[in-house]
Design the sequence.
């Protein structure tokens, strides 16, 4: 299989790290939806990152849907562990945290695009303020979740909630540290620090590098 997209995207990175933990081997093609649009379009005409080219050539899109596919593939063919809790109460909590992490990713990307892609004279400050409010609210909620229900961060214990939260936080701190003050979120910072030391995170570092398959 081939994962297409750049690791400076939290969604692409989320998939790359998840696939490793699930034991699903893949190649990585680091293509940009901007600078290599035409090349990307030859693989997936909708030019959506991440895109996963399956073994039969079918292309899947959206990080959550790709991970869902990888979970079943891992369970049926590889008999590897899942990244999702099996108990209802734990699954509910994990889904809440994942949802918050994905909101943080979404709002961070929107703010980044607004400042980096839109001409300054066309920047709509009320929209930026609204999205920033949503981003901070997501971070506040994540910090509160970690205070009441700490997430395990180790090779054997990390689940999708911890993984997605760590990826979201790293993206925010790499792309907009002035928007989300790390000093206000010590638990998120600590979780991210531990996660970034794991081999699966190191193999898919945030940025323009290509995934280093062990």
Sequence:
């Amino acid at each position: 299989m081939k994962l297409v997209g750049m690791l400076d995207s939290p969604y692409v990175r989320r998939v790359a790290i998840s696939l490793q933990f699930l034991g699903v081997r893949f190649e990585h093609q680091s293509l940009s939806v901007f600078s290599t649009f035409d090349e990307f379009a030859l693989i997936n005409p909708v030019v959506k990152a991440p895109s996963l080219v399956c073994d039969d050539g079918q292309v899947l899109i959206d990080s959550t849907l790709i991970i869902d596919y990888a979970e079943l593939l891992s369970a049926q063919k590889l008999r590897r562990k899942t990244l999702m809790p099996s108990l209802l109460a734990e699954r509910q909590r994990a889904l809440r945290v994942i949802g918050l992490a994905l909101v943080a990713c979404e709002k961070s990307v929107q703010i980044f695009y607004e400042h980096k892609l839109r001409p300054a004279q066309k920047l709509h400050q009320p929209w930026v303020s609204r999205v920033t409010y949503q981003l901070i609210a997501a971070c506040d909620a994540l910090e509160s979740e970690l205070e009441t229900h700490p997430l395990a961060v180790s090779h054997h214990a990390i689940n999708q909630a911890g993984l997605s939260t760590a990826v979201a936080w790293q993206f925010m701190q790499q792309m907009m540290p002035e928007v989300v003050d790390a000093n206000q979120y010590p638990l998120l910072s600590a979780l991210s620090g531990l996660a970034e030391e794991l081999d699966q995170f190191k193999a898919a570092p945030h940025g323009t590098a290509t995934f280093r398959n062990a």
User: Anything to note?
Assistant: Strands lie at 2-4, 27-29, 51-53, 59-61.
